[in-house]
Amino acid sequence: MRAGGWLCLSLVSLGCAASPEQLDRPTNVAFGLNGDVYVADGYNHARVARFSASGEFLAEWGEKGFASGQFDTPHGIVTDDEGRVYVADRENARVQVFSEGGEYLAQWKSAALGRPWAIAYGPDRHLYVVDGGDQDPERPRGHVLRIDREGAIVERWGAAGDGPGELDWGHGIAVGRDGSVYVTSLRGRGVQKFRRTK
């Protein structure tokens, strides 16, 4: 189907999962080194689904739960330049790391990390995570974290709120080629751009 000069090649049909190819309220996509598509099939399912660039279903991993390799709302997903797959496992308040084939490698979970809603990979070979929501009204969160590929937090900025530089349910994140970080808020100020000044 053509849409405004773009050719639409639907990967799968949506709806209840009668087969592994079907998605149900997916949340994000990432691309492997060979062009494969990784889908965080997050709200009603609890898995990562992998497709070829042409839309052929290849594999899936994960199920509902809190053990290693399980998910509770896999909400963000990204790959790095070595093929590893990072999943923001939102309700489990962690990031899980997998090989390109779905082998569980590690998890990052801490009070400093908070509850990751989205994750991106920057040209500086660091991961960027937005701690976005499920707020405790007594101690609201609204941070962006820069993390090395071993899971160490090397930088953190932002605060909860709806003013400039503040986040109210930070929901999505992307990093430009120049290193600028873009964060969307589910509530609040829409999209904000953060640029390093030193």
What are the main properties of this structure?
single chain; 198 residues; mainly beta; four-stranded antiparallel beta sheet; 44% strand; globular
Describe this structure in a few short sentences.
The chain is 0% helix and 44% strand.
Describe this structure as you would to a colleague.
The chain has 198 residues and is mainly beta. The protein contains no helices and 18 strands. Strands 3-4-5-6 form a four-stranded antiparallel beta sheet, with no helix packed on it. Strands 7-8-9-10 form a four-stranded antiparallel beta sheet, with no helix packed on it.
Q: What's the helix count?
A: 0
Could you state the order of secondary-structure elements as H and E? EEEEEEEEEEEEEEEEEE
N/C terminus separation:
46 Å
Rg computed from alpha carbons, rounded to a whole number of angstroms: 17 Å
Fraction of residues in H or I helices:
under 10%
Strand order of the largest sheet: 3-4-5-6
Which percent range describes the beta-strand content? 35-45%
Would you tell me the structural class of the helices and strands?
mainly beta
Low-confidence stretches: none
From the spread of the alpha carbons, the general shape counts as: globular
What composes the largest sheet?
A: 4 strands, antiparallel
Number of strands: 18
- How confident overall, as mean pLDDT? 88
Draw up the topology in text.
Elements: E1 2-3, E2 6-7, E3 28-31, E4 37-41, E5 47-51, E6 57-61, E7 74-79, E8 85-89, E9 94-98, E10 104-108, E11 116-121, E12 127-131, E13 143-147, E14 153-157, E15 159-160, E16 166-175, E17 181-187, E18 191-194
Parallel strand pairs: 15-16
Antiparallel strand pairs: 1-2, 3-4, 4-5, 5-6, 7-8, 8-9, 9-10, 11-12, 12-13, 13-14, 16-17, 17-18
